[in-house]
Design goal:
2 domains; Transpos_assoc; Transposase-associated domain-containing protein; globular; alpha+beta; three-stranded antiparallel beta sheet
């Protein structure tokens, strides 16, 4: 889980605001009713599906679809994301619609446990 905090008038980098950078990526926003503090939570998704050996298992397929949805929050305006399948190995950008298929057909890169290329903080 990654926490983001902001107070009134706090900005990110190069003039971009909290709403520009962080808000599209968050899963839950909590606002303090007594002050201008806002807390945003980005919850990392379950990764247990990666260890399912039968990739046609509905849980594995759902995990692949959920991964693409999770990764899409990191780059909402992009049409392509890095593909973490065993064949592409996060070295090739693919259309989002093709990434889940690659994961199911070729398998998910098992060493990719911290999804730093797909929106997860490197600190988690």
């Amino acid at each position: 889980m990654v926490l983001y905090f902001r107070g009134e008038g706090v900005t990110a980098f190069q003039g971009a605001t909290f709403d520009d950078i962080v808000k599209p990526q968050i899963d839950l926003m909590v606002n303090c009713k007594w002050c201008s503090l806002h807390v945003a939570l980005k919850i990392n998704m379950d990764k247990s599906w990666i260890n399912i050996r039968i990739r046609l298992d509905p849980l594995y397929e759902k995990g692949a679809d959920d991964f693409v949805e999770f990764a899409s929050k990191d780059r909402p305006n992009a049409t392509e994301i890095l593909c973490p399948c065993m064949k592409c190995r996060n070295m090739k950008f693919m259309k989002k619609v093709d990434v889940a298929e690659h994961i199911v057909v070729d398998g998910f890169l098992s060493s990719y446990t911290h999804w730093i290329f797909h929106g997860e903080s490197s600190l988690t």
